[in-house]
Amino acid sequence: MTESKEMVRVEKLNKSFGDLHVLYDIDLEVKESDVVVLIGASGSGKSTLLRCLNFLEIKDDGKIIIEGEQVEADTHDLNKVRQNVGMVFQHFNLFPHKTVLGNVIEAPMQVKGISKKEAVKEGKRLLDKVGLGDKYNVYPSRLSGGQKQRVAIARALAMQPDIMLFDEPTSALDPELVGEVLETMKELGNEGMTMVVVTHEMGFAREVGDWVIYMDEGKIIEVGPPDQIFDHPKEERTKAFLDSVF
Amino acid sequence: MVEFFDIFIGSTDVFIEGLWLTLRLSVVSLLIAIVIGLFIAMLKISNIKILEWIADGYIWIVRGTPLIVQIFILYYGLAEVWLIPSFWAAGIGLAFHSGAYIAEIIRGSIQSIAKGQREAARSLGMNRSLTMRRIILPQAFRRAVPALGNQFIIGIKDSSLASFIGLQELFGVSNTMGSNSFNYLPYFFTVAVYYLVIVLILTIGVNMLEKKLAVSD
Q1: Domain CATH code at residue B19
Q2: What would the mean pLDDT of B134-157 be, rounded to a whole number?
C-alpha cells in the first residue's frame, strides 16, 4: 500500500494566552482519510489546538503545515487556507438571519463565486445527506440542537474542504440528540473525510477514530489507535483519565 | 377650539409646503447620518488606535455641543469662506449630529453579536469585509432598528431648529404665521399635530419593520 498523503502536520507548536501557557511543543500528524480524535479534560488545550489548525487562534511558535504547505498567519492568505479546512463548533454558530439553505449556500456563493443555481443544488444535496431535506427554508431558530449541528456540518461541507475540524460538536446537545450528530460524523469518516475531532464521546472515539490523542495540561500525553489507548494505555495519566470518565 | 380648527384647516396649503421641506430635510440628513454613523462605527471597532481616537473626538465634539450651535457655526461660520445654502447648512448640521448618535447605536449592536458568528464566517473562508457585510451587519441592523427608529424621530423633531437660519419648514411656518397674525398659539397647536402625525407614521413603520425582520426568530 502506498504511503497516504499528509494533510496536517504540526511541529513544536506553542501557544499562550497572556501568562497562561496552553500548548507545549505539540507535534501532530494527520494523514489523508484519518479520523483523529483528541480527548482530555476541560482546559487540557485540545480545543485551542484545533482552533490553531484553522488560525482562529494564532500560534506563538512552531510549524503548522497544511497539505504540504507551511502556513504563517502574517504571510499567508488565511481565507484561502480556511476554505480547505472546515470547522464545526460546539455552539453551532449558524447564521440566524439566514434560512437553513441560506446558511449552506452563503460561503460557496460569496467566497467561491459559485452560481446560485449550482450552490442551491449542492446545498440541497448536502442537506439531504445529513437528513434535513425537508428543512431547506426553515430558520435555524426552529431547529433542535441536533438538527442545527447537522446544518452546520452541511454548511462546512459545502465549501468542499479537504479537512474537517470538530470542536466538541455534541457537548451543547441534549443527550438524546447526540446520536444523530455522531452518526452523521461517522458516515463522513467512512467516506474518507480527513477529520480532527475534539470530543468527550469515548464511544465515538473508539468506534470511528483511527488515532486517539490524549492531552493533559497542554501536552500530548499519549497517541495510539483506539484499542491501545482505551484497552492498554501506556501512560499512568491516560489510565487515570479513562478511569475517571468510565 | 373652533378658532383652532378654522386655522388648522385654513392653513393647510402653507403647512403642507413646510411639511414637504421638513421631510426633505429629515430624509436627506438622516441618509447622510446613516453613512456617517456606519463609517464612525467602523472606525471605533477598527482596533486601530488613531482611528478610534478620531471617532471618539468626533463623537465628543458633536455630543458636547448644542445642535443649534453646530447649525449656526456651519451657516454663519462657513459663510465667511463659502456661502452655504441654508438647506444644506441645516441638513449637514443635522446629519453630523444624528451621525454621532447613530454611530454609537451601530457600534453597540455590532458588538452585541456573538463572537461565534464572526468565527463561523471566517472559518468558511469569508474575509473581514464579507463577514461584516453579510453576517454581522444584517444581524446588528435588526437589533439596532428600535434605537434607530428612536433616533430618526429625534432627528425629525430636531429639524425644526432649521427655522433659526430662515428655513420655512414646519416650525418656521407656524412661527411666521403666528407672528403675522399676532396669534401664536393656534399655529403652534397646528404644527404640533403635524409632528405627532409624522412621528406616529414613522413609529408604525418601525414596528412593521421589526415584525418583518422577526421572521427568523
Answers
A1: 1.10.3720.10
A2: 95
| Closest residue in B to A112 (Cα–Cα) | B125
CATH number reported for the structural domain that contains residue A17 in this entry = 3.40.50.300
Nearest CA in chain A to B135: A95
Q: What is the ipTM of this complex?
A: 0.92
Return the residue matching grid coordinates 426553515: A138
Q: Are the beta carbons of B124 and A106 separated by less than 8 Å? A: yes
Interface check B209 vs A, CB under 8 A: no
The reported pLDDT for the residue numbered A1 is 46
3-state helix, strand, coil in chain B (%, to 5): 85, 0, 15
C-beta separation of B40 from B103 below 8 A: yes
Phi–psi pair at A136, nearest 5 degrees: -50, -45
* pLDDT score at A4: 82
List the domain range (segments joined by +) for residue B114. 2-216
Compare all CA atoms of chain B with the CA of A50 and give the residue at the minimum distance: B123
Q: How far apart are CA A183 and CA A200, in angstroms?
A: 15
| Domains identified in chain B, total number | 1
Q: Residues A94, A152: contact at Cβ < 8 Å?
A: yes
Scanning B65-136, the segments in alpha helix (DSSP H) are 67-72, 78-79, 86-111, 115-123, 128-130
Contacts of B126 in chain A (CB under 8 A): 79, 107, 110-111
- Does the distance separating the beta carbons of B117 and A159 come in below 8 Å? no
In a domain, A61, yes or no: yes
Order of strands across the sheet with A219-224?
A: A85-88, A163-167, A194-198, A35-39, A211-216, A219-224
Predicted TM-score (pTM) of this structure: 0.87
Structural domains in chain A (count): 1
In this predicted structure, the answer to whether residue B164 has a pLDDT above a threshold of 90 is yes
